[in-house]
Amino acid sequence: MIRAAAALACLVALTGCANWWPGVFPSSGGDSSVRDERESRQVVELIGYVQRVAALQAEEQQRELNASSQIFSKDRGAYGRVRLALLLSLPGTAFGDDTKAAGLLEPLVSKEAGAGPMQQFAGLLYAQVNERLREQRRATQFKEQLDALKEVERKIIEREQARPR
Hints:
By secondary structure, this protein is mainly α. The protein has six helices and no strands.
């Protein structure tokens, strides 16, 4: 009980000191903090949404994709972009399209230090989708190299069999 009271007292003291050290503690007011709080809630909502969609049957997932596409066509804002990109990057779906997902997220990826939660989440998702695309390209290259080696091996075997003994 005493520890809880001491922790609460420290928290209140630090909160009161926030105005003395600007930049160290986030301000308690202003448009940016309201926007950040709204975007944080939207990011949490999107994560829950994509988890629910992942558990649906294929037909229901397709309906959700269609609904998200319609939302995006009406409002091309960050929320609609990230929602559609999340669905397109969902593994194990028939409609998965990492290239399109990366294209949707690219405008949101920002190098600014003041990027909001939605931009930060979009940046994380963009990095993951791009990594998956890189891995797919590498796998394709390895497969092509393996096929080329098999072809060389086949030709060597054919030459050895055609050689008189």
